[in-house]
Each structure stands twice: as C-alpha cells, then as structure tokens.
Protein 1
Amino acid sequence: MRAIGYFLIRAGRPDTPVDFGQDLEDFCYENNHQLVCVFSDSAESGHVERPGYQAMIEFMRSSGSEFLTVVPDAAHLAPDLESVGRAMVALEGMGARVACADVDLPDPLQNAFRIFGVKGVSRTRSASVRESMRTRALNGQALGRPPYGYRVGSGGALEVVKDEAVVVELMYRLYSKDGLGLRLIVQHLNERGISTRRNGRWNMTTVRDILKNSAYIGTYARFGMIVPRVHEPIIPRDVFRAAQDQTAARRPSGRVMSAEPFLLSGLAYCGYCGNKMMGVTRRQSWRLKDRRRASQVYRYYQCQSRNNQSICKYHTWRAPLLEATVLSQLTLVAEARAARGDADAARASDRRAAVLKAREDRVRNAERRFLGAMRRAAMGEITLKVVGEYLKELDATRQALSTAKSVTESPGTLDRWDSLDMLERQALLEEQVSRIVVMDDSVELVD
C-alpha cells in the first residue's frame, strides 16, 4: 500500500526527521508498503495551525488514491483521544488508513488509549486479548450475549433454545412467506402473549435485527470475519435469503430523503398510554390523468407504542397542525406568566436550570458512549464509520447545550420565534413546558 509519513518536530526530543525517517522506512519495508512522501509540523505551533498536515490532506485528495498514514504515535496525530478519533474518522472518509510506527502498539486507537491515560485498552493486553477473541470466534465459541434462540453451551458454542427457536421460525415465516411487515409481526406476537427473553413485549427494532442476523443460519460474524457452519442453524439458508430479498424489495430506491428533525421530539406524549409520540415521515405517490406522476411528503406524530409494541391504538396528528397548536398554547402560557409577574420568577429560574442540567447530562452521556465506541473500535468490534456516528451524536448534544444557554440568556425569545432555528425552538419549548400530552382532539402543555 502507498504510505505517507507525518510527524511533529519537538525541540529536544528524539523524534527528529532523521530518526523518524528511519523508523518509517523500516515500518514500510517490514509491512511491504511503498513510501511516497513525508509531511511534518512544528509541535510548538500546536495542533490548530498545521500547514504540513493540511498539505498532506490536499495531497491525498488531489491524488485520488488510497494511502496509509504512518505517525510515530497517536499524539502526533492529535492532542487528545477525541481529536484522534475525529482525525481517524476524517482520514478513513477520504479512503486513508492510519498506523503508528510504534512496534509495541501500532494500532492508533490502542496507542491513543495508552498515551492519553484513558482506561480501557492495556498496552500489554490489547493485542493478546484481540487475538484470543479472534481464535475463540474461529473455533465457534460465542462472544458476548447470545442472540435470541440460542444460549452459550458448556463448551462455549451456541446451542439452540427450542422454545425460542420456534418463535424465530414464526417470525421468518410471517415475514418471508406470509408477507407481513414488521409492525404486523410485532402485533401478532404481542397479541398472542409471546414474550421476549426478558418477558417483555416485542418491538420493531428487535424483530428487524432477528430477521437480518446471519447467526440463524449457523454463521458467526464478528471482527470482520465470517465463519460459516459453526453452530446449529435455526433457519434454512433459502428462507434466510428470501427474508433478505424481501427487505431489499421493500426498501425505497432511487431517492434519498434527508431526515428533518421534529420540533416536539422528546416532549410529546400520548395521552392514552403515556408513551412518547414519534415523528414519522411518509411519501405517497400517484399517477395523474395525464399519466404524469405526482408525490407528496407527509409528516406527522403518532404514538410509538402503536408501531413498536402494539399496546395502543392509532393516535396521530399532522405535524404542522400539532406544532401550531402547541405554539398557540405556548403563547397563552407566556402571557399568563407575565401577568403573574415576580411570582413565577423563581419557578422560571428553576426550570431554566433544569433544562441546562438535562442538556449537560445528555452531553456527558454522549461523551461516555463515544468513549465506549472508541474502546470497541480499538478492540476491532466496530468500525470507524460507526465511531463517526457517535461523534455526530456528541456534536449534536453539545450544540443543543450551547443553544439552550443562549436561549435562556435572551429575554423575549418567544417574540422572535419565527427567526429561531430548530435547536433554539426546541430549547425554548423545554424551558417553558415539561411535557406535551396529546389526545385525539386536544393538547395539554404541562408546566
């Protein structure tokens, strides 16, 4: 593979161009890589302004080729663990890989955990643990929680649980032979009292995951490996293929719709079962009399229990109507508070503090999930692409917190509703109400 070297020049440190150049040449020779060029920056300038790094990025973009970026260690790539993850996600998005010339720990994520002192991956154990897990997988030994329909036997391999296997077979028959969708399968299972392993109700996500899991044909897939026929299958291969074909046939093709956020997400609750209302986007198309095709996108809120657990009826509101209704009531709430004057000042202050704390908690949770994703990626359990999704979530929660702070510091924000963006409107709603209870013919804002 074509390789590019990059390093920081640190005064009084041994990683000078000459020293790293030799390590880089040895690394490329031992791993059969072709060294193309080397870029560097002064460590004293920090990681913000790095002309050498930017020149490397431009070189890779203009060449249109895939490269391996080799650094002495992860600290040359970025100054902290999160920034290392961001850099690696960005480089992989360009078709590049990253490696460290450190012979003891060449994996950049494992290297970063060691350098930045974050608990999670040991220098001495990471490589051996990963190899041990690969060996167990190749030998047919299960890792982690077994999928529904199986248990881990005394020898470590997956064994069929007969009662659960019958349910798995039923799901595949309903989906691939009877043509039922996920919602109807969930409804079928829950209405007949068939419970999950934990005696809970089925939902669409769980059923979807079972219908696409190759473990049910005896194939073990993990760490990028696919090991067939390592345990007893529950579903015949032709039935499994039919289910995958059915999924592909149902998936919309030829168009990409951007998922626009819903204003009331997380605040709207069904007034009948107490579960959250979920935002749904649907596109309908039809042919006009002159044979031209027409289409329309519909956005609405509906009780998620109807879709995911079949414990409620079909309660739904068109999104524009529900949002307009909430806004009109919000205006009345604000006018009532203004009339009460100082009597509501302390309560409003407490609510603002609660909103900010909730957003701060979301940021901390997103940071923990990101760190967990980095650990899993360092062990080879997930890809950098998945890490990138956790980074997007982290950025979104931080932006939401920043927006909430700016909204709470701006009096009279409701008067500027039309000029606010989506995050600002959501922050304002959270500051004004704790929940929105939605009935078929009424809406209640809970203070």
Protein 2
Amino acid sequence: MDHVIAQWGRVILGGGALDREGALDIVAAARRTPHDLFYWANRVRQAHFGNGVRLCSIIAGKLGACAEDCKWCAQSLAWMKGGPQNVSHPPRQGLEKPQCAGVEEILSATSQAATRGATCMGIVNSGRRPGPRDIETVTAAARSISSRPEASIRISASLGEITEDQARQLASAGVHRYHHNLETSRRMFGQMVSTHSYDDRLATLVAARSAGMSVCSGGIFGIGENWEDRIDLALTLRDQVRPDTVPINFLSPIPGTPLENAPPLEPMELLTIVAMFRLILPRCDIKVAGGRQANLRDLQSWMFYAGASGCMVGNYLTTSGREVEQDLQMIRDLGLDVMQ
C-alpha cells in the first residue's frame, strides 16, 4: 500500500481535509498504484454513503440554438455557423432553432424516471439565461409534480445564469436543486468559453444557494485540462461553492465542435479523477454523468469502487445513454442499493 495515499486516506476518514499539495502528491503516487487510491476512495464513500447509490435523470427543457461558445458543446450556434477554421462541419443538424419541451412532456419523463429509481429529475435548458417563458414552464412543472404520486422525486433546474429573483421563483415553486457546472478550473475556463466568465457562473450558484435551493455543480474532463486544473476545480467547489452534488462528465467529442479531435482519456485516468474528487469532497454526492458509457467502457462498474455515490441514468442531452435496466443490474450485481 502506497504510504502517501494511505496517510491521506486515514486523515480524510478522520475528518481532515486534503490540501492542494497533498492532492498533487496523491496523483503522482496513483500513477504507480491506482488501485491503492481506489481502495481509499471506496472506503471514504462507504463511510458517508454506505451501500446506497443515488440515481438521477435529465430532460431537455430547451435544446439547441445556444449563443454561447463552449468548445465541447453540440448546441452552440458558433459551431453550427461554421465556427473556427479547424471545425470540419456543423454538428447536430436540426439544432439551429430551439426545441422546447412542454409541461406535459416534462411530467411524463419525470414519472418514468421515478419508476426507474431516480431521486432527482433535471430540467436542462440551452442558452446563457432563461426568459420569463422558461421560468414559467419549469415552475409549472415543479408545482404539478409536487402534487403527484411521484412527488418523492426532486426537481432540479439547469437554466444557465439566473438572478436572485428568478432563484426565489424557482425555489418557491418546489424546485429543490439548481445545477450549474463550473466545468473546469478558472485558469482553463477562458480557453474553453469566451462569451461569459467564471465569475458569472459563481454568481449564479450564490443566487441559487441564497434562495434556499440545493446546489449541484461539477465539471467536464478530457477537454485538454491537466491535473492541476482538475484539483483546482475540486478545491474551488469545496471551498467556495460547497455543493451538495457534484456531477463528473467525460468528453464525448462531437463532430463539428472545436474539440472533435480531442484525444480520449484512458478509463483508469478517468477513474482516478473520480477518486480524487471523492477524497477532496468526501461528503458530496458524486455522480458520474455524461460520457461514462463511451469513455469507461467495460469499467463502468468501477466508478463506485473509485468513490462515486451515484450516476445519471437514461439519455443525455444530445447523446444516448445505455438501457436503464443494464445500470440497475450493474448496481444489483455490485451488492449496492438504489436509494429512494
């Protein structure tokens, strides 16, 4: 057992906090002995979550026609209009105009997710910020869901930047959680997005928390970031955002976006990312979300051994997930329990 990893594992299990230097030391050690890191990440997960696994699902409330220029995203109009010279062809034909889901469609998807064991349903909109109609649709859906048999499933909204007033509207309608990813480190963010700032994202998370909503914020990996970026993101989340849930997404390169030729990360490195987030954020619900099927491949079940306490089930926004029953069978085979 690597002594550096073991020493920090005991510190974290005892309630201590991992610092930046220690995190970098663990990463260096994990390159030699990744299984030692997974062992301690799994112990930390078990200490806070036992055998419970939390599932979530999402539905696109508004899809496409986004004016932002996030380099990984198929919904950006910047890449549909030709984008930079290294973009070969526009991605995802048909997303040039927004496609909006109505209240009934959201209710139907939520009911289906509840029957599959999901405890949270995320309504995700493209665009920098919501308009009055977007807020109206989400609040109407949240109020309706709270009066239905599947009311035990909690509603999450991911609508981009919101004001304090919009946050209060969402919270008062029964939206339990607000999702807004920081995506990467402050240092890396400007290389990936130019149409809004890191501080814009942080301000939205502050507004959501101030309104009484739970906060969900994480990142995307495989976009060219290094280990310092990954650790700095985790530390920013822990020290500034204090999220309840941290989604971990892996890049699935979309043809036509600037990252279409991004080299894939190996599954063991992806699992190391999960494990490091578990050690830095020991009490957070860490969910592996977009890109796990394509990137982890046969090692998907290892995400729990690496410290994840949940995952997203069903389809994503512009890519398909695997059959939900396969995920449920995987969880049963591991001797884990879906938390209700």
Protein 3
Amino acid sequence: MILSIVLALAVVAAIIFLYFLIFFVVGFVAIVASVIIGVIEGVRYLTKSDAQFQQEYVVGQKLWF
C-alpha cells in the first residue's frame, strides 16, 4: 500500500519535472532564436547606406521584422 503511494508520487514528480524541463528548453530556444534574429536584422539595418534605407523603408514602406 505505502509502496504504491510512493511510486505514484514518484511518477507524478517525474511528470512535473519533465513538464518544467521541456518548457525551459523551449523557452531557451525561443530566446536564443530571437536574439539571433535581432542581431541579423540589426547588422542588416546598420550596413545599409542612407539611400538604400530611404528607398527600402520610406519609399517602399517595408515593415520592420
């Protein structure tokens, strides 16, 4: 009887641990991806000349990423 309760609690604890582990990994991947995208967009933005920027973002009305 006590062994079954302990095993049930162990299974529940393992499920909760895996739940938090999965969400931690997914969150970490999302943060890393957003930082990489931000760096790439920032470098692209900073390497444009004034004329390119004017043509692309003002005349062409390109939206920010």
